[in-house]
Amino acid sequence: MPIELKMPALSPTMEEGTLAKWLVKEGDTVTSGTILAEIETDKATMEFEAIDEGTVAKILVAEGRTR
Which of 24, 39, 50, 66 is the most exposed place for a label (fewest CB within 10 A)? Predict the structure, then answer.
């Protein structure tokens, strides 16, 4: 069953972030702890990691997009 991942709030004051770089591609298998992407905020660049295992089916948000 597909799970849609949402950009996490990386700090209590985070209102938006930019998806700087995908570190996985469609079809990749990931496990808990796999770094999926780098997210830039107004204060830092942080890593977004998988909390479960599975396969990346489709990437819907392009690099450089702000949410």
Answer: 66
Q: In this structure, are strands 45-49 and 54-55 parallel, antiparallel, or unpaired?
A: unpaired
- As a whole number of angstroms, the distance between CA 64 and CA 17 comes to 10
CB atoms within 10 A of CB 62: 8
In the chain, what's the furthest Cα-to-Cα distance? 35
Instruction: For residue 13, give Cα distances in angstroms to 21, 24, 48.
Output: 22, 27, 17
pTM of the model: 0.83
Domain 18-55 is of which CATH architecture?
Beta Barrel (2.40)
Spans of all domains in the chain: 18-55
Helix, coil or strand: residue 24: coil
